[in-house]
Amino acid sequence: MKLMPVTLATIKDMLDNKVGEDIMVVAQAGRKKITKRHGRLHKTYPAVFVVDLDQDENSFERVSYSYTDILTKNITIDFGEETA
User: Which stretches are annotated as coiled coil (predicted)?
Assistant: First the structure.
């Protein structure tokens, strides 16, 4: 049985290695509503990370999330694996 502890530090390290890559963030926006935002991981900071959003889909340029959002499963992130 292999358990990998997920901590804020491991989440930040994972995102540090993905800066500049395409990302999709799925966030809970209410009881039965979710929002999906596509963009590019712009920068990581000690407590938050910033995503430059796709301007075709969103009315604002950037959004930031905290690493705790991932830890508590308020958001999920997915990186585009099809880039060559």
Answer: none
